[in-house]
Specification:
Number of domains of chain B: 2
CATH topology of the largest domain in chain B: Heat Shock Protein 90
CATH class of the largest domain in chain B: Alpha Beta
Number of strands of chain A: 15
Structural class of chain A: alpha/beta
Radius of gyration of chain A: 22 Å
Largest interface: A-B, 26 and 28 residues
Number of helices of chain B: 10
CATH architecture of the largest domain in chain A: 3-Layer(aba) Sandwich
Oligomer: heterodimer
Number of domains of chain A: 2
Distance between the termini of chain B: 44 Å
Structural class of chain B: alpha+beta
Order of helices and strands of chain A: EHEHEHEHEHHEEEEEHEEEEEH
Shape of chain B: rod-shaped
Number of strands of chain B: 8
CATH topology of the largest domain in chain A: Rossmann fold
Chain lengths: 255, 351
Amino acid sequence: MNKIKVLIIDDEQLARDLLKNYLAKDPRFEIAGECSNGFEGVLAIQELKPDLVFLDIQMPKITGFEMLELLNEPPVIIFSTAYEEFAIRAFEANAVDYLLKPYPLERVQIALEKALKRIQSGTGNREELENLSHTHEESSGLLTRIVIKSGSKIRIIPVETIDYLESEDDFVMIYCRDGRFLKQKTMKYFENHLDPKKFIRIHRSCIVNTLQLAEIQQYGKESWILLTKQGAKLKISKSGYLTLKQFLTNDTDGL
Amino acid sequence: MEQTNALSRYSLLSYWTVPVLLGVLQASFNLYFEILPWGISLVDGAIFGFLLGAFGMAVWFVVRYNSPDGKPFAQLLSTHLASAAILSLAWVYSASFITRTLLPAPEYLVYLDNNLPNRIFAGFVFYILMATVFYLYIFYRKNREKIDRENELKQEVREAVLSALKSQINPHFLFNSLNSIASLTLSNPEKAHEMVIALSDFMRYSLRKQHSEMVVLEEEINHIGLYLQIEKIRFGDKMVYSFQVTPECLNCQIPTLLLQPLFENAVKYGVYEASETVEISLKASKEKDHIVLTLANNFDKEAAPVRGEGIGLKNVQERLRLVYNSNNLMQIKDEDGKFVVTVYLPCEKET
């Protein structure tokens, strides 16, 4: 039987060393590589196609979660972190296990057995990924940035730089200061995870950054058009118009 | 409340000086201008003075039970005018009844009859005067109580806020460090040994200093040294640090654990978020009666915000405001990939 290829992604050398040390005791596994941040992690996963990844969460550039979002075919994941508070999110992201640093060898062995079962059952992660992009982050707070992979480049978009978002089939097109980017998420997801004080869903297919609002024009009896500061014209639905109106009234009250 | 209901012994004494003085004045006046013989003048002065004092005390209760808050002014005024009239009349008639009985001399009786309206008027004026003084007295006492209470409250809030603002040991720092130790025990036991000791010293300082407000800069710097030593073991070449402290400020007093959140901030947004080497430097020097602490670190300009920004820095600023009662002791510069925090601390030399 082939050995299970393991990739370790953690920004601390000593944390990686500890895992390597533990893994060396089990001949069924081999270390395919190690990375110190999520950018390297994405490339390494595409290149090395590991079966199992030990993934830290808080890392430079992008978090472990953000890195997972960029993968089309994520391998089996075991999170390894000092942060207790991400456990729910980790399981929503379909992680096999969640290790809290520091952990003993026995605990890692349990995680490895679970991972082995998942790998051998061949369920893979294809359909689980579908779940992942819908459920993951449900338990987390508001987004401060969005991570995008365009071609071989990874791009981080701070939410303040977003002008508006439009749905495009199964994707969402993000229009921002630096251009436009596709992200495999739903409008619902963005509606729930962008600060409602700053972003408003003005139409089934559109969420706009309120700071970009320049003008609202009435078009027909029950249709309106929003002009952004960049000059884009966006359709407003009836319910979107009401939300917008309420927002603007509250906004002027606050002044 | 009890306090405002009754007059203290001291206030009572000062109160009585007024009617006594008035009685003496009255008697001296009659004597000096030879209006009445001396015996009659004295008895007249004593009796009118004493009863003035006695009736005057009734004014206190009228004032006490007619608080100006929430009562229409007209009602207040009419109450006082009525009681002024009643008390003045009562005073003059009861006093003159006594003096008439004691001093049946015809010249005194004529004098008394001529002076009754003046005395009633004087009683009226005395009433108004006393009522005003009593109102002012109550107002003053209430106000002082209020100020005392406010100060007490402010002090309590200040203490609570200060203890909350002092840096607590960050659990993630602790667990990540323990993980590094776990790793080192297998690969490099000597280094693990070193790190366990640094971590223990670091924690002991944080625990020991939790309840003290000020500490000398030297101790704080040693403590930060431990913190950086630990982070250095974790991050290796990714982190470089340097201290440049002039010896004269080493024994200046600074707020306890003030540096910790500043360095944590530098490590969190500098080292944790960067993939290249981050340099952290601390400079401390003395300028006139201030010590100037400058903490600089470079950071990855590309790294977009991910976690709550600068809560540690806000806490430091708030703490400086509470300790030194000043708002402009901290400056933050964020330019071209370099983050610089400057803190100005009024220097109190250790005695």
